[in-house]
Amino acid sequence: xxxxxxxxxxxxxxxxxxxxxxxxxxxxxxxxxxxxxxxxxxxxxxxxxxxxxxxxxxxxxxxxxxxxxxxxxxxxxxxxxxxxxxxxxxxxxxxxxxxxxxxxxxxxxxxxxxxxxxxxxxxxxxxxxxxxxxxxxxxxxxxxxxxxxxxxx
Length: 153
Known about the structure:
The protein contains five helices and five strands; from the N terminus they run ααααββββαβ. The chain is an alpha+beta fold. It has two domains: 2-84, Helix Hairpins (Orthogonal Bundle); 105-151, SH3 type barrels (Roll), CATH 2.30.30. A five-stranded antiparallel beta sheet has the order 4-3-2-1-5. It is elongated and about 70 Å long. The protein starts with a helix and ends with a strand.
């Protein structure tokens, strides 16, 4: 009976810690530009679920369940998902870095490869530029790895 109470206590503590971590990360939003809020929200959610996962695995270990196979399985699943979603993950990480470093902003006129136009949106997957009525969606991994020319005027 004691191990069930300890496991439940570990789970409750992980919920409290996860909530505290998410709140602390979200509090940093007020110090940043509004265009960085999406990145902070993503980081807050990721940290929340990461702490919950560690708490859940810890609780299972306290109950006496062999978590070695579970952790190995999660690692293999993560590897397979990462490989299958590498382009999406590449665009997501490039989008986060573009938003954080701000090499260009909404309203700037840029040229990337053969595409030129005014930046109208930067999200976690694409940078959208507009030129003569066309909306061009450029994947952020392309924006991050190619030369970007900022046009003035």
